Amino acid sequence: MKIHLILCLSLSLSVVSCDVLQEAGDILASSTTAPALSNEEVIKGLKEALNVGIKNSVNLTSVSNGFLDNANIRLPFPEDALKLKEKALEWGLDDQVSKFESTLNHAAEEATKQALPIFVNAIQNMSVQDGFNILNGGNGAATNFLKNQTLAQLKAAFLPKVNEAIAQVKLTEYWNPLASKYNSAMSFTGGQKVTTDLSDYVTDKAINGLFFMVEQEENKIRQNPAARVTDLLQKVFGAARN
Question: Long-range pairs for 66-71 at CB < 8 Å and ≥24 separation?
Fold first, then answer.
């Protein structure tokens, strides 16, 4: 009887000991998780991520054919002048159309060379709440925040650079003959003439293209640890994935 009692007590103690060990193990495991991020680390990490994305994006788009050879951001013939393109091709002006489209993209490429300081200045003011919302917002959240906060200012600052680029690559020299010939034909047929503002068109498309590239870079950092090129990015975005 005593032996049976001793065996029962030993079994009970073993069960209790297992429970205690399990609980201790859980506590130990939780204590080894990554420490909570400070507000300062979140803001610095997000700014660093945007700076990395911006620099990579500008480097990719400002080179020769950076827009032209990228199907995702390539500037097409202006949408409101597609009838002009159709007529120009009918008239056998294929080379002029091709040169215009190429030069359109070269204007965007030239303009983006001036974009980096504009974007860098735009990300300096970010609240703590904005930071955590962006960190936990998923793919594109930082880029969307940047776009929503700065689009109007970027366009105002970017437009003069586009005008300089248009003059530099002589875009209007390819556009004006096409538009003039088309508008002259419309004068006889009563069709609608084209009045495309090339500066606005290139500005909008170039900015949209840059934001597209920035978002691609942001998502790389979120999804791919190899793209987190600093310790801070590893810490901030590594914590966000947990």
Answer: 66/109, 66/112, 67/105, 67/106, 67/108, 67/109, 67/206, 67/209, 68/102, 68/105, 68/106, 68/109, 70/209
Global model pTM greater than 0.70: yes
Q: Is 170 left (phi over 0), alpha (psi -120 to 50) or beta?
A: left
Q: What is the pLDDT of residue 1?
A: 47
HSE toward the beta carbon, residue 134, CA cutoff 13 A: 30
Handedness of CA 35, 36, 40, 43 (dihedral sign): positive
Residue 35 φ/ψ, nearest 5 degrees: -65, 155
Nearest 5°: the CA angle 199, 204, 208 is 150
Q: Which residues of the chain register pLDDT less than 70?
A: 1-35, 240-242
Using the CB atoms, write b or e for 210-235: b if 16+ within 10 Å.
Answer: bbbbbbbbbbbbbeeeebbeeebbeb
pLDDT of residue 240: 67
Angle between helices 39-61 and 231-241 (to 10 degrees): 110
**Residue-wise pLDDT tens digits, 46-65:** 888 888 888 899 999 999 99
3-state DSSP call for residue 64?
coil
> Could you give the angle at the alpha carbon of 72 between the alpha carbons of 71 and 74, nearest 5°?
60
Q: How far apart are CA 241 and CA 14, in angstroms?
A: 38
Indicate the burial class of 75 (C-beta count within 10 angstroms; 0-12, 13-18, 19 or more): buried
| CA 60/CA 112 separation, integer angstroms | 10
Helix (H) or strand (E) holding 96: helix 94-112
